[in-house]
Structure formats: structure tokens, C-alpha cells
Write a structure and sequence with these properties.
44% of the residues are buried. The chain contains 16 helices and twelve strands. It is 45% helix and 15% strand. It folds into two domains: 206 residues, 3-Layer(aba) Sandwich (Rossmann fold), CATH 3.40.50.2000; 178 residues, 3-Layer(aba) Sandwich (Rossmann fold). By secondary structure, it is α/β, with parallel strands linked by helices. The longest helix is centred in the first third of the chain and has 17 residues. Helix 1 crosses helix 16. The chain has a six-stranded parallel sheet with strand order 9-8-7-10-11-12, with helices on both faces. It starts with 9 loop residues before the first helix and ends with a helix.
Length: 397
């Protein structure tokens, strides 16, 4: 069970596919989040009939239900301070309907994939006398800039109330697990990295002698993602032919803003999101994968995004900003790329210039990236950790 759409959550999809392959029956409830994912959602529904079910309506279907879900969500947000029982419905728009769906579905194990689903899976497991688990893809209380934010208070209350009630907890990065262990010292939090299957390992092309090709992707192209600093760094190298491609849903206003920063000498391209099975082939056509995270929150400082692991399979040299998590990753895997200070365009420009001139080192980084993906960072390894967790929980008395 999740809150966002299935095609926006590759981590959840990997778990669903693993469970189905090993003979488990799976049903996923999700809520509408963004229009660009609708087409990919439909493809998933055709691929896995009967698995994915939207609740709470959308602007395009069940519009009345969608309006009702918005009213419930906004009312809960406004009234939670006086009526704490409404807090569970204030976290995300479809929470009320997710709880109804979960509690109406008898299952041996309920799994939550973001904070908004956590109350629902715990309540459903309690109702049916079965088990539940939660995957902390983020350090949720660490997503807020200030403890005075009402959202922070509601998040902390939700974590304190429901996380200890879970039969297992997983996290998407070592430092996220460490942060939660401080809060839940008795909890065993298992790390399952945001990796992908070795089937997506791409053939490594010959050494590129042309323009240096940079790639960055996310669901949304927006601020606080380090993109301005990348453009500023390239602007410091007017004599170098460098191409930067950004993939994701990008508002027109932000696109024009970045184009203004880039000026005329930077080749800047905007690409629409592609299905997951096309992403790796696309990424492999670039030399460098940019992991330009900005530690504007504690969560962003300690998370490892799926960018890093996509770049490994694609055979990209990685240039990563020095968040705590990315520093730990890059120092643990030397030779796959380089770190740069997230506030230093000069340092990033120096890294780009060095790789522009030294294509042999660039190619060596790309080769090592694929070795790491093949030998260490792949879903075939992490899937066993996940399945062992599921088997252990289901076998417990």
C-alpha cells in the first residue's frame, strides 16, 4: 500500500514484482498525485491485472470522490490541533480512503511505503490480527526545516505512535536507518538500498572524444536540487563543449529560469519522464551522472536517491555533491566518480574540466560503475534481504 502512484515509486514496484514472482498474492492501493504518471500507471495495470487499485479519485475520474478526499484532508489539517484523532487523515489527501480500503482487505501482511500509509497498515493489521511492516524511504521528521512546523509535530507523533507497532521496518539508506534507530532503539531496521536489477546493466560504449555529456533526472525538475550550481559551474568553462540534459516534469517558468542562467554557450536540453525500463538505456548515452543533492533538510542530507544506483547500471561516471550520505557512499566506493562541495561551482567546474581533458579517467570511472552494479549494488542482492524479511515476519508466531 502506498499513497503516490505506482509508476512514481520504483522501490515499491521492485517489491511487488519480487513478491509476485515468489508466489505471493499482492494488492496495492494508491492515490492520484500527478498527471504525467497516469499513462505509465495504466501500463502497469495491464502488466499486472488486479494488483493496482486507485483510491480517493482523481481530477479525471471519480471527480466527486476526489473533491471529497480534498475536503477531508484540508479539514483534518485545520482541525487536528483541536481534534488529534484527525491527525492520521492530515498526512496526505487519500489517507482516509486508504484506511478504509486497508481495513476492508483481510491480508496476512500489510506493508506501508510512505508516512501517510503507516497508520492505515497498523490499524488494518490490528483489526485482522495479522502483521504489518513499513518501509522508511525517507527520514520523515527530517523533511521539515523547523520543529515549529505543524507538519513536523504531526509527523513525529505519527512515527512515535505507529512505528513501534510494526512487525518489521526497512529503510532506503544506512544513515536513515541510523537516524531511526536513535528514536526506536529497540527496533531492528533493515537497510534495503534503492538499487535495480542487473538486467538493466548497459553495454559500455567506446571512449567519447566529443562534447562532455551530463545527465540529471528526477520526477520533477525544480529548485533546491543543485541544478543552478551545475549551470554556474559550466558557465565557468566557456571553452569546453559540455551538454546538460535534465529529465523530469518541469514547470515552464522554471525551465525559462534555467535557460536564462545557461545563456547561449551551454547546450541545455529538457526531457520528459520515461518509463523505468527506458531510463537505463537513456542514461547510458551520457558520460556523467549528476547527483547534485542539496542538504536543505536533514532527510536530504542522509538519503541516497535512486540516481546513484541508476548511474551505476548505466555506466556513468558520478559527480556527487557532498551530502553526508553521498560522501559516505563515494568514500566507500572510490574510483566511481568524484565529490564536490554543494556550495562551490568552482570545485565542480574543476572536476568537469579535469574529466573533459582526461577521457581515460572518465572511462575508468564508467567501467568501475558497472562493476559495482554487477557485483554489489543490484536488486538481485537486495531482493533476498527483502524476501528474507517477509518470510521471517510471516513465519513468526
Amino acid at each position: 500500500m502506498i499513497i503516490g502512484q505506482p509508476s512514481t515509486n520504483p522501490r515499491m514496484l521492485k517489491e511487488v514484482e519480487a513478491l509476485l514472482r515468489h508466489g505471493y498474492q499482492v494488492k496495492v492501493y494508491y492515490g492520484y498525485w500527478t498527471s504525467w504518471a497516469l499513462a505509465n500507471d495504466e501500463l502497469l495495470k495491464k502488466q499486472y491485472p488486479g494488483v493496482f487499485h486507485m483510491i480517493g479519485g482523481s481530477p479525471f475520474e471519480q471527480k466527486g470522490l476526489y473533491l471529497l478526499s480534498r475536503i477531508i484532508h484540508k479539514s483534518a489539517r485545520l482541525l487536528t490541533a483541536w481534534f488529534p484523532g484527525l491527525r492520521d487523515y492530515s498526512l496526505n489527501r487519500p489517507c482516509y480512503f486508504l484506511e478504509r480500503a486497508a481495513c476492508g482487505e483481510r491480508a496476512d501482511l500489510f506493508i506501508g511505503h510512505n508516512l501517510g500509509s503507516l497508520p492505515s497498515v497498523v490499524k488494518a493489521a490490528k483489526k485482522w490480527g495479522t502483521r504489518c511492516g513499513f518501509d522508511a524511504e525517507d527520514y520523515h521528521r527530517g523533511q521539515f526545516g523547523s520543529p515549529t512546523d505543524p507538519g513536523y509535530r504531526y509527523t513525529v507523533a505519527t512515527e512515535k505512535k505507529y512505528m513501534p507497532a510494526c512487525d518489521y521496518l526497512t529503510s532506503a539508506a544506512p544513515l536513515i536507518a541510523a537516524a531511526y534507530k536513535k528514536i526506536l532503539p529497540s527496533g531492528n531496521i533493515v537497510v534495503i538500498n534503492n538499487v535495480f536489477s542487473k538486467k538493466w546493466l548497459q553495454p559500455l560504449p567506446e571512449i567519447n572524444t566529443g562534447p562532455l555529456r551530463l545527465f540529471w533526472f528526477s520526477q520533477t525538475v525544480g529548485g533546491d536540487r543543485g541544478l543552478e550550481l551545475i549551470i554556474e559551474a559550466i558557465n565557468l568553462l566557456p571553452g569546453r563543449a559540455i551538454r546538460l540534459d535534465l529529465m523530469g516534469d518541469c514547470p515552464e517558468s522554471f525551465r525559462k529560469y534555467l535557460e536564462g542562467l545557461a545563456g547561449n554557450h551551454i547546450v541545455l536540453n529538457f526531457l520528459p519522464p520515461v518509463p523505468a525500463d527506458e531510463l537505463f538505456t537513456l542514461a547510458a548515452s551520457y558520460d556523467i551522472g549528476m547527483a547534485s543533492e542539496v542538504p536543505h533538510s536533514e532527510n536530504r542530507d542522509i538519503c541516497l536517491t535512486n540516481k546513484l544506483f541508476t548511474y551505476l547500471l548505466a555506466g556513468n561516471c558520478i559527480l556527487a555533491s557532498d551530502t553526508k550520505a553521498q560522501r559516505q557512499f563515494m568514500e566507500s566506493n572510490p574510483g566511481v566518480g568524484f565529490l564536490y562541495r554543494n556550495d562551490s561551482p568552482d570545485e565542480l567546474a574543476a572536476r568537469l574540466d579535469a574529466l573533459y581533458k582526461d577521457r581515460t579517467t572518465l572511462q575508468q570511472c564508467r567501467q568501475l560503475a558497472q562493476v559495482l552494479a554487477s557485483d554489489k549494488y543490484n536488486w538481485e542482492r537486495e531482493e533476498e534481504i527483502f524476501l528474507n524479511q517477509i518470510r521471517s515476519v510471516l513465519a513468526a508466531e
